[in-house]
Amino acid sequence: MSTYALLNAGRIIAGPGSIESINEVVTDLGARKVLIISDKGVARAGLIEKPKAILEAAGVAVAVLDDTPPEPDVEQVNAILAAALPHGAQAVIGIGGGSAMDVAKIVAVLLNNDVSLRDLLKGKAKIARRGAPTLMVPTTAGTGSETTPNSIILVPEDELKVGIVSPKLMPDCVILDPELTVGLPPAITASTGMDALCHAIECYTSKKGNPFSDMLALKAITLISRSIRTAFNDGKNLNARHDMLLGAMYGGMCIATSSTTAVHALAYPLGGKYRIAHGISNAILLPFVMRFNAVGNEDKFCDIALAMGLDVSEKTPQEVASVMIDALFALNRDLAIPGDLKRWNITEADLETLVEGAAKVTRLLDNNPRPMNKADIRAIYSQLI
Ligand SMILES: NC(=O)c1ccc[n+]([C@@H]2O[C@H](COP(=O)([O-])OP(=O)(O)OC[C@H]3O[C@@H](n4cnc5c(N)ncnc54)[C@H](O)[C@@H]3O)[C@@H](O)[C@H]2O)c1
Ligand SMILES: [Fe+2]
After folding, report:
1. The dihedral of CA 90, 6, 270, 160: what is its sign?
2. Which of 235, 265, 208, 210 minimizes the C-alpha distance to 380?
3. For residues 9-24, average pLDDT
4. Which of 153, 308, 312, 348 is positioned for an S-S bond with 225, CB 3.0–4.6 A?
5. Whether pTM exceeds 0.85
6. Which residues are near ligand 1 (CB < 6 Å)?
7. What are the φ/ψ torsions at residue 35 (nearest 5 degrees)?
8. What is the CATH number of domain 11-181?
9. How many angstroms does the Cα of residue 278 sit away from the middle of ligand 2?
């Protein structure tokens, strides 16, 4: 086994009502002037008012940029950076899902580094310094971006989403308040929750898996499996929302020490070319990629099946793997997630571009537990169109 490391946010405050501690956290960061980066959906849900009011009551100057688009591209992020510059913020607060948090993380870094976003995305430059101090407040239970060193941005000319990965992107603080997620609509609860489940399952089966990610992944799988249907059907159930938010953060911590694999690699061109939401493309791909990955990895699949709470008594490892894959198909059906890509009108003619796009994501494909070549990738996409 090679060495392994767990990178984590500096401070995590969790539990219902934990948003009340935002002033204490910002004070600790040494900031009297902050910038909140969020999006219109989060603003409409009324999730910015309370933290803003708490901070202002304590004398902190607060600027809000709430125009992050879903899954932003490079120029959209550059526009947010340009709007951020005049504020002279001493700390950046991301309130939202992965889109807002990823933008907050990279904007904080760009405020402190003389480098272009496009060069970072094209691998032509590296992040030299940490950025302005950051606080992340997730309002979806999905990406776990609050505890990852990643920021994922669309590069339109390449029709691909690209991950900038650097320890300097790891947030300083996290507030994990499930009360902020009770209004998340069922469809977004489902897609973002399945993204979190993908993180945990992929990191557990990844070649980069290690004792840290194993512990976090199995716990995340348990929390998400037991609560995702409840959170979908009864959004106000705070226990289920708490499980989901914790499971999603553990999934993010897994990404920080292990890595996702072929599910995320094959999802990237679906987001990049067809703008299919990150959680949806991952959820659709998950059972198909796991069917491919199960061969030779049955023991790990048995662990996952047990963490999912499945009854696998008196079954061979191969049978358990197949029970687990069936359970993933059933979960997608229960959450009203499409079983294929037919509604996006992707045809045979598009396959080549998709395969080439996915094959470029070697950062993730190289960690897949079973080697996946272009013919394998094509076979998986073919089952979905
Ligand atoms: N940094 C990472 O490690 C990492 C990991 C996985 C994915 N990602 C990236 O994260 C992005 C996806 O993030 P996401 O899945 O969280 O979705 P998102 O941030 O795009 O949000 C989806 C929608 O939900 C709305 N929303 C968020 N919270 C809400 C709430 N509490 N109530 C009502 N509406 C709410 C938003 O307004 C938005 O319209 C993608 O770009 C993906 O590539 C990043
Ligand atoms: Fe993801």
Report:
1. positive
2. 265
3. 98
4. 308
5. yes
6. 39, 41-42, 45, 47, 70-71, 96-100, 102, 139-140, 142-143, 145, 148, 150-152, 161, 180-181, 183-184, 188, 192, 195, 255, 278-279
7. -120, 125
8. 3.40.50.1970
9. 6
For a substitution probing ligand 1, which of 145, 165, 264, 268 has the most ligand atoms within 8 Å of its CB? 145
CA 148 to chain centre: 8
CA angle 251, 227, 149 (to 5 degrees): 15
Place of tokens 């994922």: 152
How many angstroms does the Cα of residue 143 sit away from the middle of ligand 2?
5
Q: Which residues pair with 35 in a beta bridge?
A: 63, 92
What does the alpha-carbon distance between residue 99 and residue 146 come to, in Å, rounded to a whole number?
A: 11
Supply 304's token pair. Answer: 């996952």
What residue ranges in the chain does DSSP mark as E strands?
Answer: 11-14, 33-37, 61-65, 91-96, 134-138, 150-155, 160-165, 173-176
* Cβ atoms 172, 10 nearer than 8 A: yes
Between CA 117 and CA 127 the distance in angstroms is 10
Residue 1 has pLDDT above 70, yes or no: no
Q: Which two tokens stand for residue 317?
A: 């490892």
Under 8 Å between Cβ of 149 and 102: no
Measure the CA–CA gap between 305 and 222, rounded to whole angstroms: 10
Measured distance CA(367)–CA(293) in Å, rounded = 12
* CA 117 to each of CA 76, 105, 132, 364: distance values in angstroms, whole numbers, following the listed order: 11, 12, 16, 21
The predicted-structure confidence for 228-251, as pLDDT tens digits, reads as follows 999 999 999 999 999 999 999 999
Top-level class of domain 186-384: mainly alpha
pLDDT digits (tens, 9 = 90+) for 331-363: 999 999 999 999 999 999 999 999 999 999 999
So what's the pLDDT on residue 218?
98
Quote the longest CA-to-CA distance of the chain: 65
